[in-house]
Amino acid sequence: MKLKSILVSTITTLIWTEFSWSEINFNKDIKPILSENCYFCHGPDKNKRKAKLRLDNFTDATTSRDGVSAIVPNKPEQSELIYRVFTDDPDEIMPPPDAKLNLTKAQKDVLKEWIKSGAEYEKHWAFIKPEKPKFLTEQHPIDELVAKTLKQSQMDPSPQAGPETLMRRVSLDLTGLPPDTEQIRSFITDKSPESYDKLVDRLLNSQAYGEKMTWAWLDAARYADSNGYQGDGERTMWPWRDWVIKSFNENLPFDKFTVWQIAGDLLPESTFEQKLATGFLRNHPINGEGGRIKEENRIDYIMDMTETTGTVWLGLTFNCSRCHDHKFDPITQKEYYQMSAYFNQTPIDGGGGNGQQAPTLTVPSKEQIAEIDKTTKEIESIGPKIKEREIQVLKEGPKIKDDQVWTILSPIETNAKEQKLTVQKDNSILASGKNPKNDTYTIKARVDIAEIHSLRLEALMDPSMTGGGLARSDSGNFVLTGVEISLIREGSKDPEPLTIGSAEATFEQGSHNISTSYDGNPATGWAVHEGRTVDREHEAVFRLKEKVTAGKKSMIQFVLRHDSPHPSHNLGRFRLSVSEKSDAPINKDKKIIDTQLAELTKKRKELNDRLNKLKSSGPKVMVMEDRDKPRATYILDKGSYEKRGEEVSMGTPAALLNMPDDYPKNRLGLAKWIVSPDNPLTARVLVNRFWQQVFGIGLVKTSEDFGTQGETPMNQELLDYLATTFIESGWDVKNLMRLIVTSDTYKQTSKATKVSENDTNYSLDPENRFLSRGPRFRMPSWMLRDNALAASGLLVPKIGGSPVNTYQPEGVWEEASFGKKRYSRDNGEKLYRRGLYTFWRRIIAPPAFFDNSNRQTCTVKPFRTNTPMHALYMLNDVPFVEASRSLAEMAMTATDNNDLDKLELIFRRLLARSPIATEQEIIFKSLNRSREAFKKDPGAATALLSIGEKPINDKLNPVEHAAWTATSLAVMNLDEAVTKQ
């Protein structure tokens, strides 16, 4: 028996087709009825379940309760379900009257026949791993699968669209921009069979492709340039947005694109780029209101991450399980919090409203990156020079800059009780040989100055010391317990002791200060340990109590004692100097004595300081990071942050795919699970959205919901083919987009064609679900603006960068923020950037993009609107009027003084085709009316031409320019111009 059947979706859609009872399919025909009408009370949610009856699985539905079963396979007359849906008794009928749900006769009959045939249940179609269909022809795979459904619907495919239409369509779909006149001419004249494929490849390889693909991802990622909530502080997440553009343009495999955004920071030896990618999860709003509790905020952020991930990659309404088990899908409240546990490990505490809350990543701009590269190369080039000079200093001794204050002494006699003292080329003294516990040095040197008032001891680093330090002790430290200085005058053998009045040192270790080195107590002394192996040089300056007159033939003698109980704390390499000045300076930044080495080292320090400043001066992007100590996760009663219940560990919904044991127990494991080829949802959800970007509606209309409340796909074979092919290709997005746009299904004309005497493929299939024609829908507002700028030549094709403030009505920010946020419009090229770069204030989205998601939460389904706002916007807003003026100027300057040539250029730029005769006649009449009006009112012409920042071309006749501006604006507002068809 056959009858006209009703195919049920989330919103019941009548599509007449031949239907056989033997072809009843649980997922397509039965589950939508049960899900829509029964599962709320008899589904997965145990808290809302009535009569302890579940209809979402075979065992519960067929279990006898008091001798009654809801479903008795093969026996509808004994099935309580059938009795309840067919009865007229208001106390017995299901759904009950107060539910305001009614089953149609056809739905009731389908349920009855299904039970009669055995009441076979199936796992929800979306939770079954997709299988690649088998093909019977050499057709393009998409075309063969579409042909099946068209045949069943008794429709034929439409003819191919004309070359201009097709070129404009594919250009809009792959770049979001119209083709320019040269590209159109080239495509039309290329008659080779490969011309279209070459066009597709060129578009896929253009930089504009990444920008086009990124817009939908920003909606999904709830990207904005401010935090939202009261105060709505700014943030600098735009480098993450630029990374998304780059990823699409470079065709980063989508599994990597996914893993990096969820867990790039957890990858082994994660790169800067992989860490930056995790900004995806930090795009959530931040609540900085004074009365908010930190933990409440933190839990909100974790829930946002959980639900966004569930929507974007799994197409499931996870948010339904915050407070209870999902009413329609097999996702329990426990599983919701197990998923959230992956995101609950961040160090974020929920406090404050800073849009750069740690953890963050500083991301330099392109200009800064270039400067960083340049500086890095300079540092790299100076390194070998320093090394070369260090080796030379060791061999030859340093070149010392002349010092007018200090005179370096040239020792003529050196002696140590235990070690060997050797004078080096720089007049320093190196201790070597045995490494005794204690030692005493005696050094004699000639004095070449008439008076002595200050003396200097330099403790120098040497490779032969511990860690290249100052001594052969365990830490490279020394303890100088005694300093005795005396003068041996000419002709005298007895040293004349000199009294030290004061001293200072570059560093003193605690109580081991410099004054204890000459206090006569062997238990005290000067030391320089800083908690680590000594890694810098030091010096001490001793000032005599009274100046001493010396002769040129006099000698000075130093006795340096090392009697510390700490073994081997003897000076390893040192140098002595004298000065006539009582205030001779001490070198507090004592590092290197060699002049050339000092200059090279100073230069390297300056370059390193510059590099560090460059690296820290870029915008800070909030990224992900996990705490060292794991944080416990609890089921929250009704989702309330302070009502903790059972503690749970990390986990994923059991109905989908078991988490392999060898996956990491963190976000990286979750990410790998999401993109596992065995995950039944991910590839389907993603290819459905890419299809949606092209055709305006997904193969599953409910692109945000692949659960039981979502739509069963009209062509599951096609969806599964695309999903399996996507995985097999290595998650190649460009390959997927190429596959879609090179099909004959895509190339069809979008015009309605006759199917019968009374019907067209539009009347039978208004939403084009059977794909009987090409895609046609009004472009979103952001694309309309981009197209106007591109067609007029105003568009600045710069990729990436900080957000810009374009034309906007006055007072919008001020009114939304109670005057706290004031809008300051940018100038110059920033006004003509693509909409992708417009500053997005979360509390009040850019007014120009009125039909877009507000970016408060994750959105994966586009908005469509045909409201009068479109006409008001495009006929009056500054960007469109200015673009029309620029396009008119282009037509007037790029063509001869011929109205038809001017109109031809305008049509080509906006519609990719020439005007037909009827259009010419209508438009020229309008043009002449405008000319007459502006001749009578030249001030109106000037006013029109003054709209926008672009300077007026004073070489053009203002009346003529204004008339053509009005004409360009009219063409820009044609239905064809605002529609992708």
Protein architecture, described:
The protein has 981 residues and is of the alpha+beta class. The protein has 31 helices and 24 strands. The strands form eight sheets. Strands 6, 8, 9, 11, 15, 17 and 19 form a seven-stranded antiparallel β-sheet that branches. It starts with a strand and ends with a strand.
Averaged pLDDT, please? 92
CA distance, first residue to last residue: 41 Å
- Total strand count, please? 24
- Main pleated sheet: 7 strands, antiparallel
Oligomeric grouping of the chains: single chain
What fraction strand?
Answer: 5-15%
Tell me, what's the shape?
A: elongated
Low-confidence stretches: 1-19
- Give the fraction of residues assigned to helices: 25-40%
**How large is the radius of gyration?**
41 Å
Structural class: alpha+beta
What is the count of DSSP helices, taking H or I runs of 4+ residues? 31
